[in-house]
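Q: How do we represent a protein-ligand complex in a form that can be generated token by token?
A: Start from the inputs.
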Amino acid sequence: MIDYSIFRTRRERFLSQLGDVAAIIPAASLVTHHADVEHSFRQDSDFWYLTGFDEPDAVALFLPYRPIGEQFVLFVNPKESQLEVWHGSRWGKEGAVEVFGADIAHSVEDFPRRIGEYLNGSDSIVFRIGKHPKVESIVLKAWAEQLDLSARKGSAPNALIAPCPFLHQLRLRKEPYEIERMRIAARISAEAHELARKKTCPGMNERQVQALIEQYFLEQGARGPAYGSIVAGGDNGCVLHYTANNAVLNDGDLLLIDAGCSLEDYYNADITRTFPVNGSFTSEQRALYEIVFSAQQAAIRAVSPGQNAEFIHQAAVRVLVEGLVDLGLLVGDIDEIIEQGNYCHLYMHRTGHWLGLDVHDVGAYRLGEYPVKLEPGMVLTVEPGLYISDRLPVPEGQPSIDECWKGIGIRIEDDVLVTLDGNEVLTTEAKSAPGEID
Ligand code: GLY
Ligand code: MN
Ligand code: MN
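Then emit the structure tokens for the protein with glycine bound:
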């Protein structure tokens, strides 16, 4: 059961930050899958964060310069039995007011006609261009009309402002309620990884393991996978966004699984585990796994208030490069290899990202010259890896890769909450220490 009072509190904070600015936040629309079939609906996260309203095509207005009782306006699909019999019931205008706390609700068909009147009195307009083409053309037309009239009326909104500074800084710092939800997403996802590791054996298809994981998500009440699950045996693990998930798992290979669930209210987990399909590492696999594990431990230790994403990345990179030099997969001075990026054919991605309502959640990593400092309540992933294949050229001066290493792809990814005095890993229930998984 979703607690709708949290949305009211968020709206109050958002409205108080807007000043005399109108904010227009559109819902998502349905996306065509093929022919006249649509993908499952996925609400826009900004819209969800402020409304908790889970229908397509709606638009929310936040109007702090209007009197109390007229500041939160929702445009929604009207009730229409001929459509509801096909697509399910709608809350309609009455539900928008009674259940979702709108001060005023209209049919979304009236949005083009009414938006101009609601913008009267606003200094500027918070609206994200480039993401909602239908709503955008209506907003720009209404704004242009106001500019045309401004000489006689004496005012018009001056500028369009992206919602990021207002809204995404709020979303980046998770409320206690959100942290509780993310703990649940993390627990379900970690349990699914444990189940998958215990049931995996040589000869299975990647898709069978995907089915085990996603079945567990659904059985536990999650909405489903938060993103396309990656179930990648052997060399497929070196393809960062592998989602074909249709190869046989070979005795002697590793299996890399990157999967997390999304809850009913869209909070996500994002976990990667890598383990031997037959339960025992080869010596090459173990050597590389231990390096990635140590790199992840170092990176997690770096997560604490005042630190930043770059510091965490560098903590992981240093341990990876030192380990690769020890194994002879890289040669030269550690600092020089790092400075020149001469390890990027083996580790080519960043070490993490914000996590929340979006898997790659909103929030800046840098503000101008300065890295954003971690604060208690932020949640991020820590996900170093090594991918040994010949897909990328070996940088000049570095050794060619011996066949015995090729086809080993390893990533270990956990979800980490920044706390007052350090961090808490939310996903520890999925085992990852070398001795625990083989
Ligand atoms: N699962 C996507 C990522 O790890 O960023
Ligand atoms: Mn991730
Ligand atoms: Mn992931």
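The mean pLDDT is 97. The longest strand covers residues 254-259.
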